[in-house]
UniProtKB/TrEMBL annotation:
Pfam families: Epimerase. This is NAD-dependent dehydratase. Residues 5-214 form the NAD-dependent epimerase/dehydratase domain. Residues 31-52 are annotated as: Disordered.
Amino acid sequence: MLPRILVTGGSGFIGRHVVAAVREARGDTPPPVRLVLRDPASLPPGGGPYDGTPPADVVRADLTDPTSLRGVCAGVDIVLHCASHIGDDERLTEAVNDHGTRALVEEATRAGVARFVYVSTAAVYGRGPFTGALPGELPLAPASPTSRARAAAERHVLDAGGVVLRPHLVLGAGDRWVVPGLVTLMGRLSAGLKDRTARHSVVDVRALGRAVVAAGLSERDLAGVHHVNHPDPVGSSELLDTVADRLGLRLPGAPLDIEEARTRLAGQPRALHHLGMLAVDHWFADGGFWAGAGVDPGAGFARELAEHAAWYRQFLDTPAR
């Protein structure tokens, strides 16, 4: 009998790819999927994320309203929790990520769900440098309301014996943060960065979707924390140069060193924050997760960005070259 899977955040960036990965996992007989959505109208036409196939079941519920979650896990074997709130509204972030996750975990426990997988973030570690860090080696030091609330969510999941996945930089169709942020930074600098070898963990959202599904379906006991990034980190200069090349960006200035870049960004705190992240290692080793889960981590940053370039150009309105 096929396992019954519940996915939260199925209309979001990561969740859509998780739903697609569920459908690919078993070929002609994919497991039945139940989507829990705050707004079912957020699904694209046809209901499916990219293939037009309607999901088996859509349930309306809101993580900020625990009473709306009652019964959503009935008859479910696996929960893949991809929903989160990222933003400046601290109360909403806490309500969704912390309290909402706790309520969902309690509901899953009540329903006898066999496995609960939560998609978190490496941002729960705070600011680097982190060099080749394995799960369990770093203390949690979340520096923003969003990462603090997601660290709290992790605790609810782990206390219930669940699985926590921590990607770092996630790229691909639907990304409105990572590559767009790099494009904005280069636009403000009018240049790339010179000889920056600080390394960063990156994962293609399609590979992350496969990882989430594998963590749910695996016959192995995967309870605990796992890093889910491509095994090969990417240097800061390579990140920026590849984005500029694949998206055809025109950068009239010569590459800058970090101090020159900081001077040029004076008075722009958000841009300085992004620059500071690029200046030091944020490299999180996977500890054998991909091999253990039997999942392909993807082709690597340069090739994957090329595959997503058309989507990014459309989203960012940048010309093809």
